[in-house]
Amino acid sequence: MTKIILTTEQDYQTIQAELNAGKKPSKTLRFMVQALENYRQARKYGWSRPWNKYGVVNFQSFRLNDSDAELRQLAVQVIMAEWPQLPDAPRHFIDELLNSATKPLGFIFFQEYTDNGQHFEGVVVSYGRINKDSRRHRDRLDLILESPVSQGISTGLARLRIYVDPFNDEGKEPLWQGHIDKPIQSDTQRLFAYLADLSWVWAEDKSRIWQHWITDYIDYFGPRQWVMQKSYFHISGNPAARAALADTPDENEVA
Length: 255
Known about the structure:
Order of helices and strands: HHEHHEEEEEEH
Strand content: 25-35%
Distance between the termini: 46 Å
Shape: globular
Number of strands: 7
């Protein structure tokens, strides 16, 4: 079967109806779901964004809730510490999203990927909301913390990215994005340690794990790609491979 490409809303609705019917063989479903995701991502329907999709394998996905206010506050602290000259428009969006009385939707994605031949393991802290003008679309903010992997050993936090991306029907580019190599702010190191701990603490917590049937048919969700000797993030059945962080919080703080 050749690649499915959706070009119109009618194409999208037809594929969605066939998927809902659930009568296609798994190989056909994979093509259909991928086509649906490509269509949705190009139009910023739902949660999908290109930087959390292409060349990436998300091996853990967790849902955040109202009890995670400390994590949200720490994310704000990191953004303000690392980007003190943040322009007014993204600053206003971040403040409105993360400090609103209406709590944002939130997820954490742990992932592996290769960038210019370098292996990385990383974690995405993702916050968003339904766009006020269109329920199909999402406003989204992502912080991505990354550690290079060398010969199966994760070497430590070495890169930080941010994408400030409220829905805008005039263009596909985020409102603002930033990139820092070798982040040294203490809040950023603390956030990385906090998230690394969550990866292990929440690994068996069904109330936290996010999984949808559609993830079985999308190539950017799946198990780890590489054999890891030391990792900051969860390795199933191998707690001895957990890399130590000096400022990892006590497990009771994040349970």
